[in-house]
UniProtKB/TrEMBL annotation:
Domain of life: Eukaryota
PANTHER family from the UniProt entry: MPS ONE BINDER KINASE ACTIVATOR-LIKE MOB
SMART domains per the UniProt record, alphabetical: Mob1_phocein
Coiled coil: none
SUPFAM superfamilies: Mob1/phocein
Protein name as it appears in the record: Mob kinase activator-like 1
InterPro entries named among the record's database cross-references: MOB_kinase_act_fam, MOB_kinase_act_sf
Pfam families linked: Mob1_phocein (PF03637)
Length: 238
């Protein structure tokens, strides 16, 4: 995909957590966005996560980070009213996993002191998604102009974002699965999470321990994915 010497914006101005982000129609990332949408549109999730030939990996990671961020927001909004301080007084992923919010604050010595504190799940996820907004809107981390360089350790930032976005899925699947079924949205949630899972595994963004709370679901989705791939290969041969 060719580009002129002019600097182009990678994104429209993304706004608060309540709204999803848009990609500038004139940019390479929009073309990547269209490519990903096209492969997903024909049900090829495995193909949609792979880096298109000849493309920059940081652009691909950046575009997909925004897409998965948007998806997490929309899924959270679907169950937000059912996730209350009474129903979910802690941010958990089943009985074995509890997440504490971590925040860094400067002390008088100008070093960072990390504070850990409990919060009910709805508050935690609101904080989490707002925090992701802050990172993706930081031009030093997600440069808005196509010719501006990405930071040296850009993939590490992306990994941390995905690590926290996973917690939204982990809480919803373990604590609101009945709500998902009642709303008739289970297939949609499964499809969104399968896409997320295949992406983080393909680019090695998360460790196995990070995904442990949804281990059983992960194994089931990956097994189904392999079965579907084999069926597609057989159809091509025939």
């Amino acid at each position: 995909m060719s580009h002129s010497g002019l600097k182009k914006r990678r994104f429209f101005q993304p706004r608060t957590f309540k709204k999803v982000k848009r990609v500038n129609i004139t940019t390479n990332r929009y073309n990547l966005h269209e490519y990903a949408e096209g492969t997903l549109g024909v049900g090829n999730i495995e193909q949609s996560v792979k880096l298109p030939e000849g493309e920059n990996i940081n652009d691909w990671l950046a575009m997909n980070t925004i897409e998965f961020q948007n998806t997490a927001k929309l899924l959270f909004q679907l169950i937000q009213e059912r996730c209350t301080s009474e129903s979910c007084p802690k941010m958990t992923a089943g009985p074995r996993y509890e997440y504490y919010w971590q925040e860094g604050k400067k002390s008088v010595q100008t070093t960072y002191v990390f504070l850990f504190f409990k919060s009910f799940a709805n508050e935690y996820m609101n904080r989490l998604l707002s925090w992701v907004d802050e990172l993706t809107e930081d031009p030093k981390i997600f440069p808005p102009m196509e010719n501006d360089p990405f930071p040296k350790h850009f993939k590490k930032y992306v990994s941390v974002i995905f690590k926290r976005l996973f917690r939204v899925y982990a809480h919803i699947f373990t604590c609101h699965f009945r709500d998902i079924q009642d709303m008739g949205t289970e297939p949609h949630f499964n499809s969104c999470y399968k896409h997320f899972l295949l992406f983080v595994l393909h680019f090695k963004l998360l460790k196995k321990s990070d995904l442990e709370p949804l281990k059983v679901l992960n194994e089931k989705l990956l097994k189904n994915s392999k079965t579907e791939s084999k069926k597609k290969k057989k159809k091509k041969k025939n």
